[in-house]
Structures are given as structure tokens and as C-alpha cells.
Amino acid sequence: xxxxxxxxxxxxxxxxxxxxxxxxxxxxxxxxxxxxxxxxxxxxxxxxxxxxxxxxxxxxxxxxxxxxxxxxxxxxxxxxxxxxxxxxxxxxxxxxxxxxxxxxxxxxxxxxxxxxxxxxxxxxxxxxxxxxxxxxxxxxxxxxxxxxxxxxxxxxxxxxxxxxxxxxxxxxxxxxxxxxxxxxxxxxxxxxxxxxxxxxxxxxxxxxxxxxxxxxxxxxxxxxxxxxxxxxxxxxxxxxxxxxxxxxxxxxxxxxxxxxxxxxxxxxxxxxxxxxxxxxxxxxxxxxxxxxxxxxxxxxxxxxxxxxxxxxxxxxxxxxxxx
Length: 323
What we know:
Layout: E1 5-7, E2 12-14, E3 28-29, H1 40-56, E4 59-61, H2 64-72, E5 76-78, E6 83-85, H3 88-95, E7 102-105, E8 112-115, E9 119-120, E10 130-133, E11 137-140, H4 143-155, H5 177-188, H6 200-214, H7 218-223, E12 228-233, E13 238-239, H8 241-252, E14 256-261, H9 273-287, H10 296-322
Helix pairs in contact: 4-5, 5-6, 5-10, 6-8, 6-10
């Protein structure tokens, strides 16, 4: 995204209320070394304390398959309490296997992204239930809002990866709206996108749709990853069972998985002049959005897959409710 601006003594202004959008694909690199907030001794003390917690307290892993993997790796597992105790040597041995560089690619073969060794990427936000603009204020997110965020992510060159539901489509059925999101990711952008990790079926559906979208089998997707998967451990020292299932599915397929703790600000600042500026930008971006070139037969196959899965999921929900 390239901005034309003029200064009037009150800061930069968008000239004529418009932006010039760049279609250039950016592979960003950070030329600076990480900021050294702590010295080596302080870092080592934090590391040693964290290893002690994992060894003595352990983590509650709420998925049997995940615990079986940890047991196979040599860690102490107690299935009745779902508790896994880790030894530091085993953890460091596994961490050492992580590659220094990872890559993902979009539907456009030119949009391949590398991360690591100074190469960085920016993604859109993920997960908010609400959306706000100056026209309608703060409100529950809708499918239209969700698609608008996808269009904006596609239009700007400062975001390389779709965020993984930039706002929840609360006007769609909760059990199946992830399928509508996946389909929109395939139809509205050719950048890499972030599927959901909540449950094995959501991960498997993303993988099946990727096979259709890219026209490749699982072996090809594993050799050249297409997903950057970001998920959270919401509770300290607890890994949710459904999230564990989703992570396992993507990991088995060799996709890029990032697991982070969740930190939410207690209070957001009130919108001021930047909100008015951005309100005009998003409208322009949506109005000037151009769909990527996609084979109509691929879209038709994806739509058929989504329709079939919705019927299957509805049947599962009915059975569960009757029981």
C-alpha cells in the first residue's frame, strides 16, 4: 500500500481522500538485531525457571492422542489426570529440530513467503467477535464484514497472510460457518490463509479444500506448505483437547504451526482522528477490490464440498442432540 500525503502542520493527510494500492508482493526483512531487554544471566534464570515448572508441575494435555505422542517421545504421562511432565533435555532436543526458516505459499505461485533468519511477515488480526466503524459503530460481526476484511487483506501489500477470521460471522450457524470462511479465503484472495485449529474436523476440512484449491495431493502440500497455522493456549499449563487435535492434523501434513500464549488488553483506547482516517481507507479498499483469477471449476468443486459438509455436520448435530 502506497500513501500519497501532504503536511498541513497537523500531521500527514491523505490527499483527496484516496490511496494508491500496490500489487507488489513484499518479502520483508528486518535488518536489525533483536533488542536486548535482558542480559544473558537474566534470560538463563527465566529459562531455568520455566524448565523447572514443566518438570515439576507439568502440563494438563486434554487429548489422549497428544498424550500418547508425548509418551512415545519419552515424557512422563499420567492419563487419569491428563498430566504430562517434561524433562528439560527432552524439550531442548525437540526444540533443536525446529527449522530456522519456514515457508508458506498462496494460490498465486508468486506469493511464497519465508519466515525466519531476519525474514518477517505480517498477518491480519484473528478472532474478534465484534467490528466497529464510524457509520454503524460497534456491533457483532457478520459474514459481510468478514468478507470485507478478506478483501482488504488481499488489496494491501503490507499484509502477507490472511489473519484467520478477522471478525466472526455471527449471522451464520456456529457449527458450519468456518466452511463459509474457508470458501471465502479461496475465492477472495490468492495470499496464504490461516485455517482454524479447533477440532480435527475443521483441520481436515481445510486440508481437503486446499487439495481442491491447489489441485495437489497431501504429499505435495506437505513438501511445499500452504498454511500458516496460529493457535493459542488459553489457560496457563493447559492444552485444550480440540486445539491439540487440530495442531496434530496440520503438523502431520508438515504445515507451519505457531502456538502462542493468549494476551488480551483489558481496555482499548477510544477512537480519535486515526479512526476517521482508517474509516475512509477501508471503504476505498473494498470499493476498489478486484477478485483474483481463479478457475470457475475449482470454485464449483469447493462450493460442492462445503455444501456436502454442511449436510453431514447438520446430521451429526441432530444425532448429538437426540442423544
